[in-house]
Amino acid sequence: MQRVLIVTGGGSGIGAAVAAAAADRGDRVVICGRRKEALERVAAETGAEPRVCDVSSPEAVAGLVADVVAAHGRLDGVVANAGTMREGGILDLTHEEWDATVQTNLTSVFLLAKAALPHLIESKGAFVSVSSIASLRVPLGCAAYATSKAGLTMLTQTIAVDYGPSGVRANVVCPGWIRTEMSDKEMAVFGEPHGLGREEAYSEVTRLVPQRRAGTPAEAAAAVVWLLGSEASYVNGAVLNVDGGTILLDPGTVPFEFQVRPR
Ligand SMILES: NC(=O)c1ccc[n+]([C@@H]2O[C@H](COP(=O)([O-])OP(=O)(O)OC[C@H]3O[C@@H](n4cnc5c(N)ncnc54)[C@H](O)[C@@H]3O)[C@@H](O)[C@H]2O)c1
């Protein structure tokens, strides 16, 4: 039986790599995002089904799940991967920026899970959230993003506990630095005040990584796809860091000014 999966934020980065890896395993993958051209490009490369959907819209999220189940008759897995990042401490962030971050990174996943769980219970399916190591350790200048990701990690673990008895598994992948559009933008914000270009900024931040490099989208996707599959049949509520060991390293090894992200 071909599994049917939804991957949010599938038009680029980790989501696109999940679509490719899951399609390689023979899954039917519906990728959603806001940018039609990006989705169509990934769809052409992977055979995934593109679907324009802004996850910050509650109606769009409910419609996405309903349409996928109507079209395919089942739903076996959901990857809550779409995310947005706004730098800044509380004094830097506007109320609107806070709300937009929490809506996209956290509330949308509550709504996605609410719509998907009845179908995942039926299929004994799996839910995977793409959170961040920022949900586990407090990064500087990242109040809205880190708080929303900490909520996402906990929300996903509540699914594991509340719906584990119904046969659903829910797990969290916490990437560290992975080279994608999001981290390229971060490098610009991070490097600019110090006169560093993108590659130099990557070199500086990856001094915080024991493996001394950023990861690839495919490396993060491999963890997601493993958690979705039967090889992980007794893994529930886990937090799997894909960060080259970053979480373990004392950030004191990098000069303090490079850990601050001014706006
Ligand atoms: N790249 C990293 O270093 C890193 C580290 C930790 C966590 N993450 C997380 O990984 C996930 C994927 O990010 P990525 O690194 O692949 O970056 P990315 O920018 O390539 O992917 C994010 C995707 O989410 C989509 N998206 C954003 N808001 C959306 C919305 N409202 N509705 C639908 N789609 C929306 C974007 O269009 C994009 O395709 C994010 O949740 C991010 O927070 C990334």
UniProtKB/TrEMBL annotation:
<dbReference type="InterPro" id="IPR057326">
    <property type="entry name" value="KR_dom"/>
</dbReference>
<comment type="similarity">
    <text>Belongs to the short-chain dehydrogenases/reductases (SDR) family.</text>
</comment>
<dbReference type="InterPro" id="IPR002347">
    <property type="entry name" value="SDR_fam"/>
</dbReference>
<dbReference type="Pfam" id="PF13561">
    <property type="entry name" value="adh_short_C2"/>
</dbReference>
<feature type="domain" description="Ketoreductase">
    <location>
        <begin position="3"/>
        <end position="180"/>
    </location>
</feature>
<protein>
    <submittedName>
        <fullName>SDR family oxidoreductase</fullName>
    </submittedName>
</protein>
<dbReference type="InterPro" id="IPR036291">
    <property type="entry name" value="NAD(P)-bd_dom_sf"/>
</dbReference>
<dbReference type="InterPro" id="IPR020904">
    <property type="entry name" value="Sc_DH/Rdtase_CS"/>
</dbReference>
